[in-house]
Amino acid sequence: VEKAARIIYLNKTCYNGLFRVNSQGQFNVPFGRYKNPQIVNEAVLRAASNYLNCNEIKLVSCDFAELVSGVTKTSFVYFDPPYDPVSDTAAFTGYTLDGFDQNEQIRLKATCDELNKKGCKFLLSNSATPFICDLYREYEVIKVSVSRNINSDATKRGKIDEVLVRNYG
Question: What is the pLDDT of residue 154?
């Protein structure tokens, strides 16, 4: 409970709700400029708790490759990895101590292939880079335009293309 409370506090008070770590694995996001951040929304927390506890939902925190051993045809897996950089200056993949480079993207694709062989449905979101579109070319790749609210340069915030990749119709 204390860890969850700290994460909620950080999410609601740090710059744009961003979460990242430095090379030592320490949280390193500056404070946001909020006058009255809504840190606790009791109704939302209770509703989320009720939903998670009253349904057959399993939240897992592990390496994504470990995940495939426990899934079945009736499972649904959603992947939201650190996105492939859209440019050399937008190459932030440091949400974790080890980073998430193209080798990790390829390893994630192999994990999706394993899920597909098991008959498990998956959905993945990522950048609409040529690398990602080519990597997942045998799956359904849907481009979507989304708004970006995080950028140190406010003029560079706005719409950007992402992809949703899925193995089901």
Answer: 63
Residue with tokens 């999410």: 11
* H or E element in which residue 148 lies: strand 140-148
More confident residue, 143 or 15: 143
Q: Beta-carbon neighbour count of residue 115 at 10 Å?
A: 20
CA distances to 20, 41, 67, 96, 97 from 26, rounded to whole Å, are 8, 27, 25, 9, 8
Does residue 160 register a pLDDT over 90?
no
pLDDT digits over 96-122, tens only? 556 789 999 999 999 999 999 999 999
Q: Are 143 and 132 in contact (CB under 8 A)?
A: no
CB contact at 8 A, 127 and 164 = no
Residue 123, C-beta contacts closer than 8 angstroms, at least 6 positions apart: 76, 77, 78, 79, 164, 165, 166
Say how far apart CA 141 and CA 125 lie, in whole Å: 10
Reference 137, options 145, 146, 149, 129; nearest CA is 129
